[in-house]
Specification:
By secondary structure, the protein is an alpha+beta fold. The chain folds into 3 domains: 171 residues, no CATH class; 67 residues, Arc Repressor Mutant, subunit A (Orthogonal Bundle); 77 residues, no CATH class. Helices cover 41% and strands 18% of the residues. The chain is built from 16 helices and 13 strands. It is globular. Keywords: DNA-binding.
Length: 362
């Protein structure tokens, strides 16, 4: 084992997340990070914007969506993410066998979930895109309850039936997998053990140094589901003991040079991958500001990252073609750093195809 500090862990995670060198494309970014959380489409796209070295535009994203390069599926923590199509089989092997809250919810409502899934499947096979309102009509008078937080659509996604079509500001259409893949669900191996080992290894390769508690938080899976898989890959991982916790990284993947200060400014969006992927919040943020970032009901604020440190949160207001940013600082920020934040706000406004009206600090 080699020495590793908390600051070193922080800076390695930032670099591995794609915030320093970036990935070659949005597809490569989503693949490496094992999905981009995107229940709020614009913030999922902001996460991609910060991590692709060749640049990202809204038109470019629209072309990727139209070509099926990225789709929306439910995965980790039963939340919707942007994934590549080839991720679907793995998600199915890992999550479909589990009893989700959706099945229990349907039982409480006296609804046959499998019957509903069959109806949705048959409808989605008949046309390229199916409107959310069409699915609601199919589900009948209890549609609103059945579609709460995704509801039956979660099960339709996990079982390999339909996906949500990425669209801003929010999802309106769904589509059957047959329109973008010739593989049938029956052709999938259903190799739960192999898929879980791969899932674990990829997590540590992307988000490590990380702990098993971190993986549990990120995946939304209980220990008994993944511990056997962990033992299967343990010899392929290098362990670091820091402050009584065991951190893991793939053997040979430890670049200690990445422990240096990350000199950059980023306006990270809500639910950024760095904030949903670890159980321990203290690795990245001063715990006295924890409630300013991690809100109730699972909401995570957009944050200001300056040279590897969180210096506050931010929000924006759009009026027509104008956008104004308000930054809520955690303590003071130098004049030069405020200028850097304004430059980054200008860059982000350009990505959102808006004119920067103002950047204020509170």
């Amino acid at each position: 084992m080699r020495d590793l500090s908390k600051v070193g862990i922080r800076n390695i995670r930032i670099a591995k997340s794609g915030l320093v060198e970036g990935f070659d494309s949005v597809e490569a970014c989503a693949k490496k990070l094992i999905g981009i959380q995107a229940q709020y489409q614009q913030f999922g796209e902001i996460s991609l914007f910060h991590r692709v070295s060749s640049g990202v535009t809204l038109d470019g994203l629209n072309r990727v969506y139209a070509d099926g390069g990225l789709i929306k599926l439910w995965g980790q923590r039963t939340t919707v993410h942007l994934y590549g199509v080839d991720e679907w089989e793995s998600l199915n092997a890992i999550y479909a066998p589990r009893r989700t809250w959706v099945r229990k919810h349907c039982e409480e409502l006296g609804v046959d979930l499998d019957d509903m899934l069959g109806k949705i499947d048959r409808l989605a096979r008949t046309k390229r895109y199916v409107g959310k309102d069409e699915i609601a009509a199919l589900l009948g008078e209890q549609a609103k309850k059945l579609m709460t937080w995704g509801g039956v659509l979660i099960e339709a996604s996990l079982t390999g039936g339909i996906y949500a079509v990425p669209e801003r500001p929010k999802t309106r259409f769904y589509a059957h997998r047959k329109w973008i893949s010739s593989e049938s669900v029956e052709s999938w191996t259903g190799n739960h053990a192999g898929a879980m080992e791969d899932f674990l290894y990829r997590y540590f390769a992307c988000y490590g140094p990380a702990t098993l508690v971190d993986f549990k938080h990120w995946s939304g899976l209980p220990n008994y589901v993944f511990m056997e898989a962990f033992w299967g890959i343990e010899e392929r991982l290098e362990r670091f003991d820091v402050d009584g916790k065991q951190y893991f990284l793939p053997v040979g993947d430890v670049d200690l040079a990445r422990q240096g200060v990350v000199s950059d400014v980023k306006l990270l969006g809500k639910f950024d991958p760095l904030f949903v992927s670890f159980a321990d919040k203290g690795w990245f943020a001063d715990l006295k500001y924890e409630r300013e970032i991690w809100r109730t009901a699972g909401h995570i604020e957009a944050v200001i990252l300056v040279d590897g440190e969180i210096r506050g949160t931010w929000r924006y207001v759009i009026k027509g073609q104008n956008i104004a940013f308000t930054c809520y600082l955690f303590g003071g920020l130098s004049v030069s750093d405020k200028k850097r934040v304004k430059i980054e706000a200008e860059r982000l406004a350009g990505f959102l195809e808006k004119e920067l009206q103002a950047v204020s600090f509170e």
